[in-house]
């Protein structure tokens, strides 16, 4: 285990079946690579429930609840009410999200996306929680809705804009989150963003099981690979990976209101029986 490194994966989806066969090993690899904490992000009603369950089973895993723009057609009044209740009931729930707009896939009508996004932004304001924003090919409109709702606490997850859009997000008070796509040879735009954004406004994430960094591109992503992203950010900023880990961990603590870890902290991943089938149904 790397005792000199402290990293938080601020956006992962480890409730997916992709992790069912090697759950314990996946968590151990994260620990061995200096990942001291994770934020498990809900993307629909079912996964929001799972995210809360996982967070409540593991001391240093936190969660968010929300409905992804692809799935907003399931966001009826009952679903929205349950998301709100999950956010209120769990002290491990640190944000509302993943919410936002996706005009690339267009898997849901845009007017429905806009309406549900607005509902969740208002919910975040009412509950005094930050937001985790999904934005794909909808930069201007996403930011317009955030501004209209008066949101000044949140993160643009898996940032895909340019330096100018990053500046606009920073002016609104938002953080910019970097995934393993920063290692892709063609993604110079994101590397420019990393070079330009103040370090105190950067977060690290995997978005696993998606977007595995080089050299794992095309395979399942996992929290341990947050270290690869941290190493790339360190290279681009002329810092050590320990510096990047420490600063981005402080940023995550500041945004989400979660405890910070230092390099001597040992993850409590094994404080419970972590059989995957138990995790997704109840704590054992």
What would you note in describing this structure?
By secondary structure, the chain is of the alpha/beta class. It is 40% helix and 15% strand. The chain has helices spanning 23-32, 45-57, 77-89, 110-127, 139-148, 163-171, 188-196, 226-237, 241-256, 276-279; strands spanning 7-12, 35-41, 61-65, 93-102, 131-136, 154-156, 175-178, 202-204. It has an 8-stranded parallel beta sheet with strand order 1-2-3-4-5-6-7-8. Helix 3 runs parallel beside helix 4 (110-127). The protein is globular. The two termini are 26 Å apart.
Distance N terminus to C terminus? 26 Å
Strand adjacency order, main sheet: 1-2-3-4-5-6-7-8
Number of helices: 10
How would you classify the helix and strand content by structural class? alpha/beta
- The overall pLDDT average reads 92
Model regions low in confidence, pLDDT < 50 over at least 5 residues: 263-282
Indicate the overall shape: globular
Please trace the helix and strand order, writing H or E for each element: EHEHEHEHEHEHEHEHHH
Strand content: 15-25%
Quick one: biggest sheet? 8 strands, parallel
Using only CA atoms, what is the Rg?
A: 17 Å
Helix amount, in percent? 40-55%
Number of strand elements: 8
């Amino acid at each position: 285990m790397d005792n000199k490194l402290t990293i938080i994966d601020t956006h992962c989806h480890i409730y997916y079946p992709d992790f069912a066969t090697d759950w314990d090993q996946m968590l151990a690899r994260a620990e061995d690579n200096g990942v001291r904490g994770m934020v498990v992000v809900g993307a629909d009603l079912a996964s929001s429930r799972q995210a809360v369950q996982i967070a409540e089973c593991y001391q240093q895993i936190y969660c968010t609840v929300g409905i992804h723009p692809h799935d907003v057609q399931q966001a009826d009044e009952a679903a929205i009410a349950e998301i709100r209740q999950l956010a209120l009931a769990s002290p491990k729930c640190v944000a509302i999200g993943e919410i936002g707009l996706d005009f690339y896939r267009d898997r849901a009508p845009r007017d429905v996306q806009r309406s549900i996004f607005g509902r969740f932004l208002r919910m975040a304001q009412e509950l005094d929680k930050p937001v985790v924003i999904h934005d794909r090919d909808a930069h201007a409109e996403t930011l317009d809705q955030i501004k209209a709702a008066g949101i000044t606490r949140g993160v643009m997850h898996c940032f895909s804009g340019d330096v100018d859009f990053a500046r606009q997000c920073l002016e609104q008070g938002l953080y910019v989150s970097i995934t393993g796509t920063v290692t892709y040879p063609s993604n110079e735009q994101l590397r420019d963003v990393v070079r330009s954004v103040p370090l105190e406004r950067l977060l690290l994430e995997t978005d696993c099981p998606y977007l595995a960094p080089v050299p794992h591109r095309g395979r399942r992503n996992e929290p341990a690979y947050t270290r690869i992203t941290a190493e790339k950010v360190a290279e681009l900023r002329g810092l050590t990976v320990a510096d990047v880990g420490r600063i981005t961990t402080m940023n995550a603590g500041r945004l989400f209101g979660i405890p910070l870890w230092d390099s001597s902290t040992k993850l409590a991943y094994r404080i419970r029986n972590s059989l995957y089938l138990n995790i997704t149904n109840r704590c054992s």
